[in-house]
Design a protein that fits this description.
about 260 residues; 9 helices; 6 strands; binds farnesyl diphosphate
Length: about 260
């Protein structure tokens, strides 16, 4: 099934470590990449779109189940109008150009975020590919566009409040699982690993609920330079981590060695 993936198979095959089931990436540094080359910012975003193509295919090849990419935050609407317009055009072009490759490679596309603010034509393209890819089961590609973690939590609270008000949900039954069911990411597992490029030590309103226990990996590499080997560096680093979920190291070891909480 990997025949049509445009990847460096020798390089990716050399990695024998753990692959996160759900990888989420804050793609940052397009502007700096462009500035260093004396280019307009949009050229950085275009180079960033190339990196998206390559990382999507590498993740599909390596067996990542869910890949979530932070492409445009709710706060990014405040950027200069020409940059916002350029980014929206890039998303549209990406969807058109990648549609067939996503389908051929059995990748399911989902867009998370507030679609009301997107242009009708982009909304239609998103819905069309989401429907066309709905039965694909090799990888879920979630692209966060016009997305904000706090907004997502507020929206979930509104949905829950509405159901409680009209009597279809008992407030005593509200638990973490009910809450999760009202997030954009309902039905998807939480990310095991979050990568942020370009060295900033921030979460920037990304998946606030979902990353409660995620491992964080921050690299100075700017997003347009983030390639397959940078991805493997992140996986190597993740491989060495011990995920404790609030337990002690000894408890985690017992579970790993005996398969029980012993
Ligand atoms: C942050 O870098 C990046 C963005 C706001 C846009 C991300 C968009 C892409 C990677 C390209 C298209 C995406 C898809 C899914 C096709 P920045 O502009 O804040 O960089 P800076 O901090 O160096 O200025």
């Amino acid at each position: 099934m990997s025949g049509d993936l445009n990847v460096d198979e020798d390089l990716l095959d050399s990695y024998e470590g753990t692959i996160p089931g759900h990888l989420a990436i804050i793609m940052d540094g397009n502007g700096r990449w462009a500035r260093r080359r004396d280019l307009p910012r949009i050229r950085g975003h275009r180079a960033g779109a190339q990196a998206v193509r390559s990382v999507v295919e590498a993740c599909r090849y390596l067996g990542v189940d869910t890949l979530t990419l932070y492409a445009f935050s709710s706060q990014n609407w405040q950027r200069p109008p020409e940059e916002v317009a350029g980014l929206m055009t890039l998303f549209e072009i990406y969807l058109q150009r990648e549609r067939e490759r996503l389908l051929e490679n059995d990748i399911r596309l989902e867009v998370i975020g507030n679609r009301d603010r997107l242009a009708g034509v982009l909304r239609d393209s998103i819905s069309e590919i989401e429907e066309a890819s709905a039965n694909n089961d090799q990888m879920v590609l979630q692209i966060a566009v016009s997305y904000g973690g706090r907004e997502e939590i507020v929206r979930a609270a509104q949905g829950i409040a509405r159901e409680a008000a009209d009597g279809t949900l008992d407030p005593d039954d509200i638990d973490e699982s009910v809450f999760e069911d009202h997030l954009y990411t309902a039905g998807r597992p939480d990310p095991e690993l979050v990568i942020r490029t370009s060295g900033e030590m921030r979460i920037s309103n990304f998946l606030l609920w979902q990353i409660a226990y995620s491992e964080l990996y921050i690299t100075d590499t700017l997003w347009p330079d983030f390639d397959e080997s940078a991805l493997l560096d992140a996986f190597h680093d993740y491989e060495g981590r011990e995920r404790r979920f609030g337990k002690t190291g000894a408890q985690v070891e017992t579970v790993e060695n005996t398969g029980s909480d012993g």
